Amino acid sequence: MLTVRALYTEYATPRGPAVKAAQDVTFEVPSGKFFTLLGPSGCGKTTTLRSIAGLERPVGGDIVVNGKVVYSSERKIFIPPNRRNFGMVFQSYAIWPHMTVFANAAFPLEVRKNKLPKNEIREKVMRVLTAVGLEQYAERDATKLSGGQQQRLALARALVMEPELLLLDEPLSNLDAKLRDRMRFELKRIQRELGLTTIYVTHDQGEALALSHEIAVMNEGRIVQVGSPRTIYEHPRTKFVADFIGTTNFIDGIVLGHEEAAQRWRVRTPAGDMLVQTDSALTPNMRVTVSIRPEDVELSETAGDASGPQNLTSGLVDQKVFLGDFVDFQVKIGDFILLSRAHPSLRTPIGEKIHVRMNPDKCVAIPDDGAARAAA
Amino acid sequence: MQAGGQAPASDARVAEAASGPGAGMPPRLQGDAPRVDAQWAILGSVVAVTAWLALVPLGFLVWQSFLTPHSARAPARFTLKNYIEAYTSVETLLLFFNSLQFAIGAAVLALVVGTALAWVNERTNTPLKPLFYALSIIPLIIPGILFVVSWIMLASPKIGIINLVLQSLFSTDHVFVDIYSMSGMIWVDGLHYAPIAFLLMTAAFRSMDPSLEESAMMCGASMAQIARRITLKLAWPAIAASFLILFVRSIESFEVPALLGLPVGLRVFTSSIYDAIHAYPSNIGLASAYAITLLVITMAGVTLQSRVTGQGHRYSTVTGKGFRPRRIDLGRWKYLTAGLFLLYATLVVILPFCVLVWSSLQKYYAAPSMAALQTLSFDAYRTILNYPSAGTAVWNSVVLSLGSATAVMALTAVICWIVLRTKIPGRALLDNMASAPLVMPGLVMGLAIMICYLTIGGGVYGTIWILFIAYVTRFMPYGMRYNAASMAQLHRELEESAAMAGATWFTAFRRIVLPLLKPGLIAGWIYIVIVSVRELSSSILLYSPGTEVVSIVIWELWQNGQYVELSAFGVMLIGALFVFVMVAQLLGKRFGIKEA
User: Fold this and answer.
1) Which of B30, B156, B360, B439 has the greatest number of C-beta atoms within 10 Å?
2) Within 10 A of A246 (CB to CB), how many other CB atoms are there?
3) Any idea where the domains of chain B sit in the sequence?
4) Which residue in the set A85, A92, A141 is minimally distant from B594, CB to CB?
5) Which value does ipTM take for this structure?
6) How close A262 comes to chain B (CA, Å)?
7) What is the pTM of this model?
8) A147 interaction partners in chain B (CB closer than 8 Å)
9) Chain B: residue whose CA lies nearest to A20
10) How far is C-alpha A108 from the geometric centre of its chain's CA atoms?
11) Which of residues 25-54 of B touch A (CB under 8 A)?
12) Fold entry, domain B38-62+382-596
């Protein structure tokens, strides 16, 4: 459906050399899927989205939608945004304040080349306004809408043109937390019902995990990992991905060797020797970082049984913070502090000994940057 | 989001493919020959017009300043004589001194009056404030020449009402005030520009966070200490910038030096330029040399001012926003400040207007007295309605002001769009070109345009078109300010979403950008209409019989000594402008954008 190949963008600054934004960005989105570009601000995700939209002109690469080339540096093709027929929801919603709700939504149909008859426009607009729950506000001034309603109007305006591609640029970031949660479901529902291929840009990992079929994590202009939300979360391939998505413990270690019996690698760490899994090629004596999520660090007051390969150790409770639906423990193992998220029923007092269990499947070894580059 | 998230939506190829017949079919190649379409035709012609208006007359002015007078016997030759003459005479030194004294004096007076009033109005609980704010705007619509004339009637040594009243009071023939002097010039010019200082400083006080003053109060500072050590210090950049603006305005001002200085031989640059042109034989080369000196001074002033203000504030508007400042309770002192308000209003609005009304009701000019009260008549109004050039002048002024206001706002809307929304190389230059006429004093502009169109011909000189060109050039910077201020507030995504919806550049501009700019467009349009009607200093060099405008008629009436007719004309003019502003604001409110 959408193919982006070797996309490079840069923009001129008033002084100094051009700043490079997207670097060699390549990905593919199958039809009807919800694809998210995730990364911190300045990582090039918005520039990539705007290049797909045609609002930005890349300096190199290809963008193909439905077999139609919309941009190709080699073949010197650039289709302007108003000819691409992609719907887009902007971060600011970009609701035109001088028009009514209806006029905003009807605009795409009024400016297209082969204009529809008036009653047909009316029918289409009302259908899409109904879909987003704004039908009773059609004649209202667009500025009289609340934030969430404006957001839905922006979505309606993007949907009314029956776009080939729906582009969403941080559409939820201007809403308050409660509303954001509701709109997240709404967005997912509409996307699924219409089967629209959707590209979503966000810096909020929660949003990305909740909405997407596939996520591309970007950093410093490059895609660092593409995968399903679960893969990204459970098998981060770099320290950056592990750190950016959710909270995690990083434990420095040195690879001891492969344990054939357990099909796991053994790593020496300040928290003791551990069995870990990895997607990377490891060699003995390699420096790695082991990432384990706090909720995967299991605590108990009694020693656990070692059925199957397990990382078992013990430490002292150093700090704990009660957060209602869970308790965060800081457990001191030797000099190392391990963060664990436990059920609130665990009430071990500070200073007491506690047993720690870490499933090797959840312990991910990531080669350190230098080592990874040397290996590659 | 990112600084680079700016769309090259203006890019040539974008528009090309957008309106190309091949759109929707296999995409066009970038390398194709550029096609003429709406966007490029409009953008290209706007750039060309701006460059022509801003640069060409200036070039001619510089060129002329190096030439000898052209006469039937000898053609013009290259010479440095104009500059030598202008710079070696003692008189030039005196001219320089006079000009600076006048401009600095008037700027300081305007600034002190304006700042004090703005502080009282913004920061204290003085009564009558709403009335005062409205009153403070009125002087802006009184043409400068009428203000000067009314002050002559008030304070001239022979016929001035103030002198006559004081003389009869103390039964002496001592002259108490003499308007024909440097202090008289500073007084009139300073009062005339005080409203501008008031508006500038009001904006400065409004945009100041009151919590900064409140925290000083919590530290135990007294009201005077706060005013001196916090408020004034914080307002310092605004004060410095306002001073420079007022300085430039004063040094450019023509009416005051011409009417008050020339009769007693007090010359400044503007009046000397006028004199050099109107001498016989006219010495345009010398006038150009003076003009370029004046231009250098104003350029220095404006450059310094934008330095002080900083680049970011270059487009700052007069309307402040944001904070709701705390008002200081003045207690009993508030009656004093209210008294100061009234005094100011009397000096700037009430006295000048009343004296004009009085004089307009006389047959021959006479100071107010019981005897003169017996002879009130509407003869002057009757005369002026039958005055041969008055009707033409009114018609010309109406056509010119409406036409140039419309042209300026349309032209600068596109310029601002190019400057703020595109990445076309050289857009900063375009911005500077369109703002450049700001440093050109009206008289210098008139001179430059006169030389330009006399030299290249084309039949423009002597028609109303040359005035139109002058007005558009002169007021282009104002249009830039109004449009840039409102376009800066327009989120880029509002246009981008139109492009995503499938609209072409032209459709997006017409249906999204222009309607959203409407409040700014209307405000700027009204302002330019008013300043066009008041315009004298460019027109005076460019008009010819049949193309007079209202300010020229007033000038002529003054030269002819027809004071009562002048007053009648002035009263009607002020009335008409007042009605226009009221109606325009009403319409603007009704058809303006509905604010959220």
Assistant:
1) B360
2) 17
3) 38-62+382-596
4) A141
5) 0.76
6) 48
7) 0.77
8) none
9) B4
10) 29
11) 27-31
12) MetI-like fold (1.10.3720)
